[in-house]
Structure formats: structure tokens, C-alpha cells
Design brief:
- There is one protein chain.
- By secondary structure, the chain is mainly alpha-helical.
- It has one domain (2-72, 110-179).
- The protein is 79% helix and 0% strand.
- It is built from eight helices and no strands.
- It is elongated, with a radius of gyration of 29 Å.
- The chain starts with a helix and ends with a helix.
């Protein structure tokens, strides 16, 4: 009988730890609609999470200055060439006219530091723009797709949390079998 409790207690503990963590992870996403006043974290706080994500992206990942630093003289010259190629004008057939137009556009848009003019980019892309784009996209995101995205991004960690629950449950069950409840 004593050997059986060393098998049963850890097994029950592992099962309960696994199930408990599995349910806890599921409750992050479900229920999608309120049931008895309960709703999953993502569906319930999607707007708040969208706002926070927008702030994080805007403050730490991408802002007008980061975009400006990607637009240097070389990339702007290529963009102007592409624009002139797509928007055919008989004037551009004269090499000197095309080169002059390109040089004027580049000179007007590039700062002395070799990047897109700060004043122009900040009038086009203000700091709240990135925040608003991210926030709007997440708010409009279908909750099922958002759940899939979160699971895809954090799949190994979610599995680790569930398995850790089973391991801790097993260890607690093992300790209980030694104590002799």
C-alpha cells in the first residue's frame, strides 16, 4: 500500500498541476463573451492592450525619428528615380531636366545631416501617428486571430508553463506521499 501512494499522489499532483495551468492559459483567451461575469483577458481588455501596445511601439520601437533615419540621401534619390520612371513626362526624357528635378527634390527634402528633413517628416508623421495605427489595428483585429497570433508568438512558453504545472504538481504529490496524509 505504501508503494502505491508513491505512485498515486505524484500522478494525481502532476495531473492537477497540468490541468490547472492548462485552464489558466485558456482563461487568458476564453470565454470570448461574458459568461456569468467572466471573460477572458484578451477579449475583455483588447482596447486597453491595443493602447499599451501602441504606446510601446511608438515610444520604444518605431517613431518619426526612426523613420527619418531610414530615409537617407541615397534611398531618397532611388525613390525620386522610381517616381520619375512611373510618372512619365516628356520633360524627363531630357537627361539634364530629369537630373535637375531630382537634385532639387533631394536638396529640398534632405537635411544637412544627410537624412530626410526633420521638420517635414514630423509634420507628416507626428508621434501619435504610429501609436494610433498600432492601436487601431489591434482593436480591429478579430479576437480569434489575435488569440492565434499570441499563441504563435508564445507557443513554447505556454507549453512550458503547462508542463511546469505538471512537474510542480508531481513534486508536491511526491512530498505528500512522504509526509503520509
Amino acid at each position: 500500500m505504501n508503494i502505491i501512494k508513491f505512485l498515486i499522489y505524484p500522478s494525481i499532483g502532476a495531473f492537477l498541476g497540468f490541468i490547472t495551468n492548462f485552464i489558466a492559459i485558456k482563461l487568458l483567451f476564453r470565454p470570448r463573451r461574458k459568461i456569468f461575469g467572466i471573460q477572458g483577458l484578451l477579449p475583455k481588455r483588447q482596447k486597453e492592450l491595443a493602447k499599451k501596445a501602441g504606446e510601446i511601439v511608438n515610444n520604444y520601437l518605431v517613431n518619426s525619428e526612426d523613420i527619418r533615419m531610414q530615409l537617407d540621401k541615397t534611398s531618397l534619390e532611388k525613390a525620386v528615380d522610381n517616381y520619375l520612371d512611373r510618372n512619365r513626362n516628356p520633360l524627363w526624357d531630357f537627361g539634364i531636366a530629369r537630373k535637375l528635378a531630382k537634385n532639387i527634390i533631394v536638396a529640398l527634402l534632405i537635411d544637412k545631416d544627410g537624412y530626410f528633413n526633420r521638420n517635414i517628416i514630423e509634420s507628416i508623421i507626428h508621434n501619435e501617428m504610429v501609436l494610433n495605427i498600432v492601436q487601431k489595428k489591434i482593436e480591429e483585429f478579430d479576437i480569434i486571430k489575435l488569440e492565434g497570433l499570441v499563441k504563435k508568438a508564445s507557443g513554447p512558453e505556454i507549453r512550458f508553463i503547462i508542463v511546469t504545472g505538471a512537474v510542480l504538481g508531481f513534486l508536491i504529490g511526491l512530498v505528500e506521499s512522504f509526509i503520509g496524509f
